[in-house]
Amino acid sequence: MIPAGASRLGPPPRMALWFLLPGALVLGVMVIYPIIYSIFRSLYDAGGDTFVGADNYATIFSDSGTLTTIRNNLIWVLVAPALVTVIGLIFAVLTERIRWATAFKLIVFMPMAVSLMASGVIFRLVYEQDPDRGVANAVATTVTGFFGSGQTYPDARARQNDQAPVVTQQGAVVTRQSVKPGQPVLVPLVGVKPADVASAATAKAAQPASGELAGTVWVDFTQGGGGALNQVDATEKALSGVTVEAVQNGAVKATATTEADGTFRFAGLAPGDYQVRLPQSNFQAAFNGIPWLGPALITPAIIGAFIWVWAGFAMVLIAAGLAAIPRDALEAARIDGATEWQVFRKITVPLLSPVLLVVFVTMIINTLKVFDLVFVIAPGSVQPQANVIALEMWRVSFGGGSNQGLGSALAIFLLILVLPFMILNIRRFRRDNQ
Questions:
Q1: Distance CA 268, CA 270 (A)
Q2: Per-residue pLDDT tens over the stretch 293-351
């Protein structure tokens, strides 16, 4: 115990002020001063010469473009933090049950080592609609191609004259006259782009066997001129992969697909009159990818990129919380007959709730401030549909709007949105440290 009147051991409290002064100066210059100046600047017009009071704040809630940014931020806050937290929880639980947990954590956490700008560039390429460039659409077209049937020729059509053996009816191509088994069927088409049949084989006239309905589907056009109309000539191209139906009394009796040489065959048909039909599906444009960067899907697409970046962060924090859970409680529940789902829902999640709350609130703050991903991923034509408050603040201030009064008002509005969640996080940290 220090006697009364004796000097205190160690340096005086005033010494601590000198060590805090550099940090306080940096905080004041980099944080406090910009906030105060932004509040002051938000009360003036675009040029900063005329005092407009709260007009800039009124514009935020009256301009349709700004209201779109608020709506998009609301979608972000409702969707992205919850998905990141749930996916991070699933990944953290999985890492406790697999042998290669370290490699799994490394792979999932790796996007955190990439800047958000670089992540935006990566996902701008991932979401390209051309399947030859965009990974997402390359996968989608592969899956649809696996389950799809045949090839499509969206530009093909029947000749519109009375001599053509086929006509177009409600998008399908059908024979003008009924045909019988043993009779060859000619299905000449035109309008096919040369690039679509550049590698196609030469068409061959089908010779049906007895009781067989056979025919040929081909491009009835000879490059350079010549050739006989409605006849399979030596240089004309076959249309392969076309679905062909044998229709009798309005009902489909058999289905076939044209071979490489354009021929098709129906065997085992009952005697009678048939109509050969190429259904409309042959002439619909082939699936060429999902428009991820279009106005309808741009916000969900960017949220997907956000989840890819932050799921590893959530996984690491939640995994640390899982490691701190007493194993005795989990084992006692299993001994009492609880299923793994019951253990997870009634013991693991409640014990992890402080960590989950921290992750969730942190993600809310990050979604409110999101800028880089939206700026890079969204093309200029759809940026108004994908816009968020942080990006709108930059656009109206420095991106061509030159209205720093409104930009400052948006900055203060964003600060007001973020502050409650920051205060919640700080109180949570203080409570955990007590």
A1: 6
A2: 988 899 999 999 999 999 999 999 999 988 888 888 888 888 888 888 888 888 888 89
For CA atoms 423, 424, 425, 430, the dihedral sign is: positive
Q: Do residues 189 and 132 share a domain?
A: no
| pLDDT lower than 50: segments of the chain | 149
Residue 288 placed within a domain: no
- 373, 111 contact by CB (below 8 A): no
Q: Which structural domain range is residue 332 located in?
A: 43-137+293-433
Would you call 99 helix, strand, or coil by DSSP? coil
Q: How far apart are CA 126 and CA 50, in angstroms?
A: 47
Cα–Cα distance between 40 and 34 in angstroms, integer? 10
Q: What is the pTM of this model?
A: 0.73
Question: Is residue 305 a part of any domain in this protein?
Answer: yes
Q: What letters, b where the CB count within 10 A reaches 16 and e where it falls short, cover 404-427?
A: bbbbbbbbbbbeebeeebeeebee
* Boundary (domain end) residue, out of 283, 308, 327: 283
**Is the Cβ–Cβ distance between 375 and 123 less than 8 Å?**
no
Residue of 158, 211, 167, 206 lying closest to 184 (CA atoms) = 206
3-state class of 56 per DSSP? helix
Q: Beta 243-248 vs 184-189: how paired, if at all? A: unpaired
Helix (H, G, I), strand (E, B) or coil at 225: coil
Of 243, 362, 263, nearest to 310 (Cα)?
Answer: 362
Report d(CA 123, CA 125) in Å as an integer.
Answer: 5
Dihedral sign of CA atoms 40, 42, 47, 51 in order: negative
- Please give the order of strands across the beta sheet that includes 184-189: 184-189, 213-219, 263-266
Please give the tally of structural domains in the chain.
2
Contacts of 418 (CB under 8 A, 6+ apart): 365, 368, 369
Report pLDDT digits (tens) over 63-75: 888 899 999 999 9
Contacts of 173 (CB under 8 A, 6+ apart): 156, 157, 158, 166, 167, 187, 189, 277, 278, 282, 283
Residue 159 is assigned to a structural domain of this protein: no
